């Protein structure tokens, strides 16, 4: 299993802070994003945002990152501050 986490406004928009998905061969962060976007219209809108960021095992990465059994994937909006 892969633990998928949602932070900040994503957690609020999707009404969940985490889900579990099954691992499969050739799974990447982008494939997870696409899979989640197929859930329904709301998830499609949230997961298709151009500004969406992703991390694997607490390391910010890109959309081609390989994801394996036992990994933790986190989706979050851009961080702003002052």
Write a structural description.
With 82 residues, the protein is of the alpha+beta class. The protein is built from three helices and five strands; from the N terminus they run βαβααβββ. The chain has helices at residues 9-14, 29-37, 41-47; strands at residues 2-6, 18-21, 53-56, 59-61, 72-76. Helix 2 packs antiparallel against helix 3 (41-47). The relative contact order is 0.29.
List the helices and strands and how they pair.
Blueprint: E1 2-6, H1 9-14, E2 18-21, H2 29-37, H3 41-47, E3 53-56, E4 59-61, E5 72-76
Parallel strand pairs: 1-5
Antiparallel strand pairs: 1-2, 3-4, 3-5
Helix pairs in contact: 2-3
Report low-confidence residues grouped into runs of 5 or more: none
Radius of gyration: 12 Å
Oligomer: single chain
Q: What gross morphology would you assign?
A: globular
Structural class by sheet pairing and helices: alpha+beta
